[in-house]
Amino acid sequence: MKDDMWSVDKAKTVFGVGRNDLHFLDISESGELCIKLRDEQITIKEIVQKMKAVNEKSPGYVSSFTLRIPQLITYQIKKLRTTFERVFEELEYKGKFIGIYPVKVNQRSDFVTTIVRSDSDYGLEAGTKAELLLIKAVIANEKHRHIVCNGAKDPDYLRLIRDSVEEGYNVAISIESLHEARMVVEHFDPDKTDLVFRIKPYLNVEGHWSHSTGRDSKFGLSIHDLYNVVDLLKQTGFAESVSTILGHAGSQITDIESFSRFGQFLTSLYSELRDMGLIKLENIDFGGGLAIDYTGKHAPDLMYQYARNLVHGVSRFLQEENNKHPAPNIMIESGRGLTALAALVIVEALEVRSVFPAPGGKYESETAPAKEKEYLEKIGKINTLDDLVDIWNEFHKHFGGMTLAGLGTIFEREMIVGILEKATRERLIALEIQSFSSKKQIRSFWHPEHIVVGNFSIFNSIADYVLVKQHFPVIPISNLHVHPETTVRLVDITCDSDGEIAHFYRQNTEKIWFTKDNRPLTIPGGKMGDGIPVGVLHELPGSHFILALVGAYQDAIEMDHNLLGDLPDVELRLREDNTWGITWLTGAESIEHLLKDVGYADIAVDEDPYMNS
To answer: Is the pTM higher than 0.85?
Structure first.
């Protein structure tokens, strides 16, 4: 692709900017990455500059930081409610929508309070005693909101729930075992108790955490336990205390059509349980599962398709039974779908390191130039992928491996390998080969040759990238209007080989687009690959990258590996008059605080642990 054929629109395609769950991002004509709130565009560069100008002398200032945008949570809540209400109208569904936010997804006060402020009826879910105490404090003046108490329960947890009910809170207790049911029967009044049956969903759906479903799930009542619990509640006068059944299909479910089957399954249980005497059963809580489009490969109406399939499944079962039971209210515990968009990690690039030396260096041996020429001639004559892979493997083995011949020889070999790799990529493009995968290949054709050191810790900022291989979009903030020069790996400052992020989803285009150095930017059909595209390599130091969609779970599971704690938190808000401002919330976690957490109380160093650039 020639430079004059590059455009900002092509950059938006490559990086997924402006579509699906990156709808709040845009690229200016000058190639600056922007945040788009309402009709206003705010460049990341402006935010970085303003943050530095105002807060550079603040305790814990670091050139990288987490940017929080609570208004995107409000946007997602309104979108979710509006989507379900639209589907209810389309399908003439008579039940109500009830939103529940599971605070485990992100317990930060600015996130939880934003959810409460955004919808006067939105409920909250607790999985532990601590989370219930948090919820009570947040909604102390709005006790009408639904609270669902999940998680394993001991007598103290149940006592806290009972006290909360006495204080006027609207609390529902999930029952996940016969043991829990027995404790509830022993300690609660059936006339003051709201019960939820959490049931194992006996079906499998495709998603990142789909292993948490089916008979082996750690969550919920097995069917045989369900029969025993129903008998116990009927015998003790609690049968009319059951208002809700809950099933959780997993998190980040990408097989959208499976939600129709899930809707039918839980509705069949709803119907049977009402037939068994649980006549006050009126809600089905479908848990979470609403996917965030981290790759940008899904349909733009992902949320609508999720809601449509779920409600259609419920409606279909009710119709098959001639509507003998009323349409249940539909409760949704989407957490990731509400909060993921609301946080970005903005990472300063400290330096660029190259894997191979630049061509033009001195040859140590007399035979090396001839051998290099021989391989270049072979590469130029090859016409098939298999033959290219064979010659690729051959020159890597010839010039690779350990040697005792000295530094000059190693330098020479590395230089030649870089030259031959470049020639191979040029030949691949000349042959217009559409498939580049081969099991025989000892090294990827496209493995990035440049490493960017970023002032952050993957373990603290995006722990899920290491823990569960969750993909996060990575986008440079400048030079997006120019044809990308190459691709890079973004590494952090930890002393850990897992501290790097190179995955980049190559979007679907009819023909492959390439960087200037012949690395694919897109792939027909779309595919995950290694190498983050960058515009101008030598201008990266001092510039920044964003890690997007990090508002779900990452704050809750962050790790202080290598004693690298939290980055500063900065909040962005667009005011009513369409002016914007940023608020410094906290500085980076200090070395002193981190050391105290691991038992060193006598080391007073009130500085942050990140790099000073």
So the answer is: yes
